[in-house]
Structure formats: structure tokens, C-alpha cells
């Protein structure tokens, strides 16, 4: 199935675009999108004032399986932190900034559930 985008992937990309527009309205500057390393991926990364904000976007068509924040397991958090370390190693200009990990849930009606400081790097 190379070259084909599934409906779920398309909805995920649309959710990321929706979050990117909201971040732009906040005046944030995009640093990276879909930054991928072996073992992890960062959906969106922004410079927001004096912060580096790593944003995990979670599209949820249904809420009965739990919210967006609940879907970011400890394993997923570790992968995001790993990818963030790689991003910082490749871009040392951001290494001195405090880092915040946000999770944004996007539902079928394009409503955003933006959770700031959803988890911490340990």
C-alpha cells in the first residue's frame, strides 16, 4: 500500500493543520513538523516566546475510548522525549530554552482540546 494515504492518516494530517493554524494565531513560530527519528516522532514543534513547545496532535473520532491526553501513554511520551533530544542535538540554538510538552485533541467537529504541560520529561 505504498503511495496511498489512508482515511485515518488524512484525518490526522488535517488535525495537524488545524492545530498549526491555531498556533500561528497565537503568534508562535514553527520550528519543525513531523520530525522523525528512529524510535520517535514529533508532530509539531514551536518557539513560543521563551519556550520550545512540543505538540502531540491526537485525532479522535470518538470520545468513548478516552480523551486525547489519555491516549498518550508513557511509552509514547518516552518516544516524544527521545525525538526531542535528537531535535535539540541537531538544533543547539534551542537547547537552552525551557521545553513544554502539550497534547492537543482534535475531534470530528474540529474542536481543539489543548492541554498545556500534558506531561514532563524525566
Please, could you describe this protein's structure?
With 122 residues, the protein is an alpha+beta fold. It has a single domain, classed as Trna Endonuclease, Chain: A, domain 1 (3-Layer(aba) Sandwich). The protein is built from 2 helices and 5 strands, in the order αβββαββ. The chain has a 5-stranded mixed beta sheet. It is globular, with a radius of gyration of 14 Å.
The helix fraction, in percent, is 25-40%
Summed over residues and divided by their number, the pLDDT gives a mean of 89
Low-confidence stretches: none
What's the number of structural domains?
1
What is CATH's topology name? Trna Endonuclease, Chain: A, domain 1
DSSP strand content = 35-45%
- Molecular shape: globular
CATH architecture: 3-Layer(aba) Sandwich
User: In terms of structural class, how would the helical and strand content be classed?
Assistant: alpha+beta
| Ends distance | 38 Å
Order of helices and strands: HEEEHEE
The CATH class is identified as Alpha Beta
Q: How many helical elements?
A: 2
Amino acid at each position: 500500500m505504498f503511495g496511498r494515504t489512508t482515511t485515518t492518516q488524512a484525518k490526522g494530517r488535517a488535525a495537524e493543520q488545524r492545530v498549526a493554524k491555531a498556533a500561528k494565531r497565537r503568534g508562535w513560530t514553527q520550528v519543525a513538523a513531523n520530525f522523525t527519528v528512529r524510535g520517535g516522532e514529533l508532530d509539531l514543534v514551536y518557539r513560543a516566546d521563551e519556550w520550545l513547545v512540543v505538540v502531540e496532535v491526537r485525532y479522535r473520532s470518538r470520545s468513548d475510548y478516552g480523551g486525547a491526553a489519555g491516549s498518550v501513554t508513557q511509552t509514547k511520551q518516552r518516544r516524544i522525549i527521545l525525538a526531542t533530544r535528537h531535535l535539540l542535538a541537531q538544533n543547539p540554538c534551542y537547547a537552552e530554552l525551557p521545553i513544554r510538552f502539550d497534547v492537543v485533541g482534535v475531534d470530528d467537529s474540529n474542536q481543539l482540546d489543548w492541554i498545556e504541560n500534558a506531561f514532563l520529561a524525566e
